[in-house]
Structures are given as structure tokens and as C-alpha cells.
Amino acid sequence: MSDLFETTADRSVTATLDEATAASEARDWPRAAALWDELRAAQPQDPHRWLKAGEAYSEGRVLDRAEDILGEAVVRFPDHCWIAYRYAVLARYAGDFGEGLGRIEKLWRAAPDFWAAWVEYADALTRVGNRNEAEAIRRQAAERFPNEYWPNYAVAQLEAEHSDPRGALRIWLTLAERFPGQPATAAALKAVSDAAEDERGTAAPDGRSTDPGTRGLTERLFQRSRRRSPGRHS
To answer: Is 168 exposed, middle or buried (0-12, 13-18, 19+ CB in 10 A)?
Structure first.
């Protein structure tokens, strides 16, 4: 009989986990927060449940509750990088950029092989006005993590901002070839492709594109990306 009760309980937990995961994926943050909080309370030794509960509350902008959960989680699980990362993001959401910088710098120094800390650290430096240091961190991150998308996206964005539309288009196309199917790249490609079209239209009275193949590739990348959800981690 006890085995039957255990099996039923296991099935119930599994179903709740499935519902919570589905709610997070659907960005139904109130439901995700309630489900993950229930799961977290039932098994407080599982750091993933703390992370997902904190994420759901922070994305749903219930920031006080997210602060309570993540503030305790970073103490319970001091070596869990994603919890520390989410704790830093929470300070950004609250508009406390100084606190956010302090939290992410602590993680960046403690976990130099954690790529997300480099990206958020550079962004945090930019928010407090340290643009030169932020650029240096972004370039170091791209060199250190050549196979991770977001560090390389950050450098592509940096270089594209200092290029003309055609140069920016080449930069984004190169990134798209290295990391196919990324919505952020496709959106950037569409923006610079439109700018390049405007530039060519000004130069050519008939307004026809001189590079229809590139235009078609950009459109296909953009349409494909619309079926994907952007994000720095799952």
C-alpha cells in the first residue's frame, strides 16, 4: 500500500513539474510562479526549483517576492551560477544598477568560466557609464567563449553600431552563419537590411535592390526566427 501512495505522489509531482515548465515556456508568469513556489516548498533542497520560482516572480515583476526567494537561494546554494545570475538581473529589474553591478561582478570574479556573467557584467558596466571597460569585457568574452552565442552577439552589435549599413549587414550575416536560427540576429539583420535598402534606393532612382539574394536570405532568417523565443538561458 505504501508503494502505491509513493507512486501516486511521484506522478503528482511529475505532473506539477510538467505544468510549471509549460507555464514558464509560455511566459505565463503568475501561474509559473505559483507552481514553482509550490514545488520549491515541497523540496527545498532542489536549487532548480528556487531558480525557476525566482525567475517567474521576477519576470512577472513581483520583485519583492523574487528578492525574498533569490536572496535566500544565493545563501543556500552559493555555487549555483544561474541563481546568482538571476539575483543580479533582479536588481536590474528593480532599477538599482549599482546593486546589480555589485552582484554580477561578484559572480564574474567567482566564476570566470560562466559566460553569462561576462555578458551581464558588461551590460551592467554600460548602465553605470563605464563604456570603455564594458567594451573590453565584451571583446574578452567573445574570445574566451567562441562557441557561445550571446558573447559573440554582443561584439557583433558593438561592431555593427560603428559600421555603415552594408558593413553591418556583413557582420550580422557572418554571425547568422556561425549561429543559425537565432531570433536576435534575424531581427538585427532585418533592421540593417532595411537600412541598406533605403541607402540603395537613394542611390538608384528605380529603387530596386542590387542584392536580392541577400535580401531574400534576410527575410527567410527573420521569418524562421519568429517561431523561436529569444533568451539568454532556459
So the answer is: buried
* pLDDT tens profile 41-98: 999 999 999 999 999 999 999 999 999 999 999 999 999 999 999 999 999 999 999 9
Q: Give pairs for 73-81: CB < 8 Å, separation 24+.
A: 73/47, 76/44, 76/47, 76/50, 77/47, 77/50, 80/47, 80/51, 81/107, 81/111, 81/114, 81/116, 81/117
Asked if 87 and 55 count as a contact pair (C-beta separation under 8 A), the reply is: no
pTM of the model: 0.82
Residues of CATH 1.25.40.10 domain(s) within the chain?
8-77
CATH homologous superfamily of domain 8-77? Tetratricopeptide repeat domain (1.25.40.10)
218 and 194 in contact (C-beta within 8 Å)?
no
Say if residues 39 and 17 touch (Cβ distance below 8 Å): yes
Asked if 73 and 51 touch (Cβ cutoff 8 Å), the reply is yes
The candidate with the shortest Cα–Cα distance to 175, out of 230, 221, 226, 121, is: 221
